[in-house]
Write a structure and sequence with these properties.
Structural class: alpha/beta
Distance between the termini: 20 Å
Largest sheet: 5 strands, mixed
Number of helices: 4
């Protein structure tokens, strides 16, 4: 997983064909729990799909305020707002195609299901 530390890295992530973005907030206990689950899921998922071109990223919007506009624009409804839970967004060329507000609540199976649904089913090796 790539930790986004600059505006340039953020822009490269937006240009990716298939990206999964985790939004992290160090002040949020829910985000810390969600990050642990997400990191474990990414490791397992990559092990099952070594040929996949899906890229995984982590972003702390508070550390990069210039990203907040994009983060806010991706919300489809009031319930889609991040609110510090540790959300996951599936992105195709800069546009959100799926969103979960609280990764720890939905679990690894749902993260895998949404990845398959939005990026095509990727068979295990």
């Amino acid at each position: 997983m790539t930790n986004i530390t600059s505006k340039e890295q953020f822009e490269r992530m937006l240009a990716d064909e298939q990206a999964v973005l985790f939004l992290f907030f160090d002040w949020s206990g829910q985000a810390v729990v969600s990050l642990r689950l997400f990191e474990s899921w990414v490791q397992e998922w990559r092990g099952l799909h070594p040929e996949s071109s899906v890229a995984f990223y982590r972003l702390d919007p508070d550390a990069h305020p210039d990203t907040w506009r994009w983060v806010g624009e991706q919300a489809r409804s009031e319930t889609d707002n991040e609110r510090g839970f540790g959300s996951v967004t599936w992105i195709r060329r800069g546009r959100s195609v799926a969103f979960v507000r609280y990764a720890a609540q939905v679990g690894k199976d749902e993260l895998s299901r949404l990845t398959d649904e939005h990026f095509g089913h990727i068979n295990a090796a």
